[in-house]
Amino acid sequence: MMKGPTAGAGVIRQWLSTIVVPAVALVVTMVVISLLAGGSSLSGESIREFFTIAPDFLASRGMFQGGQQPCLPDKNAQSGTMNSTEASVGASRYVDRKIPEPTDFQTDAQGSTCDLYRGEWVFDSSAGPLYTHNSCPVIIETQNCQRNGRPDKGYENWRWKPEQCILPRFDARKFLELMRGKTLAFVGDSLARNQMESLLCILWQVETPENQSTSRMQKWIFASSSTTIIRIWSSWLVHKSTEAVEFAPEGLDKVFLDIPDENFMEFLPSFDVIVLSSGHWFTRRSAYILNGKVVGGQLWWPRQEGNMQMNNVDSFSISVETCLTAVATNPKFKGIAVVRTYSPDHYERGAWNTNGSCTGKVKPLHEVVRNAYTDTMYEKQVASFRRSVIKSGEHGGAKLKLMDITEPFALRVDGHLGPYTSVDPNKKTQRGPDGKPPRQDCLHWCMPGPVDTWNEMLFETIRRELLVV
Ligand SMILES: *[C@@H]1O[C@H](CO)[C@@H](O)[C@H](O)[C@H]1NC(C)=O
Ligand SMILES: *[C@@H]1O[C@H](CO)[C@@H](O)[C@H](O)[C@H]1NC(C)=O
Ligand SMILES: *[C@@H]1O[C@H](CO)[C@@H](O)[C@H](O)[C@H]1NC(C)=O
After folding, report:
1. Looking at the CA of 40, which ligand is closest?
2. Where does the source fall among the domains of life (predicted)?
3. Is 355 a pocket residue for ligand 3 (Cβ < 6 Å)?
């Protein structure tokens, strides 16, 4: 049923090895990311928090490691509705173009080989969003852009067009049929929640699910097909504790880089598909523990301990490998594990508290504005993914799939909440007289919005797995 271990791994972008850090990225002395914490009452981490990224590693890094092999375009794939000449013509980008659906959902061979993550955003007003701001009861207030007064709607109409094939529009009934009797679990941070809620909203349009949530997890059952959708909070995907470890005091979060998070691992055998999301919590104040020893910290480190062995980015790298290897080599886990790559934020000219802004962005970018932190996190994550595939052996490695969204979504500067994070009619949405932009969220994604495309990509990934015989 599973494809070979290279199937999911062969998606590293050429740009990784040719990347150039623009000078502007180096001028940034502080990158701050807002993060909506845990959500609901699941883990007591439901308050909104903002975390500061210590920038020291940025300064120490003028270059990125390269050397990964780019994925070659599939020569056997037929082109979709556009040829590459068209695709590269920037002027055609804002022309309204209808993307046709693939003709044969079950046996679409060309779709099964093309790289889903290399392509372009196409404005296609013929389709429209898969749900609306008032047709889904589970959109959390902070991500309901239209209800919160966002004036433009164009961002709801861009479809992702892979170069070599068509990414099918999400068909909720087909999805439930494909997932008949199966369980899909989203595990991770607030971006995992963003994606899970998007999926629930899409499916809600054809069937109201039954809420079987517990204190351990959110759980929704679609009775017609016995499909279960789960979300489990896990900030770092590895074990966390606040107990004292060596010189790291009680109370401070300890992130155990070599121990997978038991909060989801104990349920792993019951999952057919698990989607993993992490990265942004590595900006949070915490201590990193490896082999029972304190090896580093983020926004915390006692001066008298000398140099840290490890910064937050390297800690992230180890945590990804720990988690993925544990999942892939678990003999009771028979499903697939999808790693959704680092979700890019779009704070421009500063951070959330230093006049960083994505206000007024109403169209995708033509070209990615390189962000040194995002690039590094992405590079570490992909490298850890590849190591995990190798370490897990042929059978285990085949369970791991990379959902390589970082580059396509780096273009979606228009897809975030910006200042439209609450219904408060008095919230500030414009720059003040001093030119300061209002406080905003340029990390999470509007619903409906580009995050829905993650689920189209996920659907396609699952479909390909189940089609392989
Ligand atoms: C590609 O599309 C462009 C623009 O529609 C057209 O002029 C050109 O002939 C096409 N090339 C091929 C090889 O189909
Ligand atoms: C689902 O059920 C849980 C547990 O009973 C509850 O806390 C939560 O509010 C429910 N969610 C919705 C959207 O109804
Ligand atoms: C934000 O912008 C205002 C006005 O341009 C400026 O006075 C202020 O110093 C800026 N704040 C930061 C933290 O950069």
Report:
1. 2
2. Eukaryota
3. yes
Active site residue 190: yes
Q: How high is the pLDDT of residue 238?
A: 98
pLDDT digits (tens, 9 = 90+) for 125-143: 888 899 999 999 999 888 9
Taking residue 366's Cβ as centre, other Cβ atoms within 10 Å add up to 10
Ligand nearest to the CA of 355: 3
Residue with more model confidence, 87 or 101:
101
Q: Which of 190, 234, 384, 388 is catalytic?
A: 190
Q: Residue 423: CB partners within 8 Å, gap ≥ 6? A: 141, 147, 148, 149
pLDDT in tens, 393-436: 999 999 999 999 999 999 999 999 999 999 998 998 988 888 88
Residue 19, SS3? coil
Q: If you count DSSP H runs as helices and E runs as strands, how many of each does the chain have, helices first?
A: 13, 17
C-beta separation of 341 from 7 below 8 A: no
Give every CB contact of residue 165 below 8 A, 6+ residues apart in sequence.
77, 80, 102, 108, 110, 111, 113, 114, 116
With contact defined as beta carbons under 8 Å apart, do 412 and 65 qualify?
A: no
What is the per-residue pLDDT for 314?
98
CA gap 239, 235 in Å, rounded: 9
Nearest to 214 by CA among 378, 40, 370, 364: 40
Q: What is the pLDDT of residue 70?
A: 24
CA separation, residue 112 to residues 12, 25, 105, 182, 408 (Å)? 18, 37, 10, 21, 19
85 C-beta closer than 6 A to ligand 1: yes
Which of 266, 259, 244, 420 is CA-nearest to residue 333?
266
Residue type, 459: F
3-class SS of residue 260: strand
Q: Which atom of ligand 2 is nearest to the CA of 138?
A: 13
Question: Could you tell me the distance, in angstroms and rounded to a whole number, from the CA of residue 350 to the centre of ligand 3?
Answer: 9
Q: Which CATH homologous superfamily contains domain 119-466? A: SGNH hydrolase (3.40.50.1110)
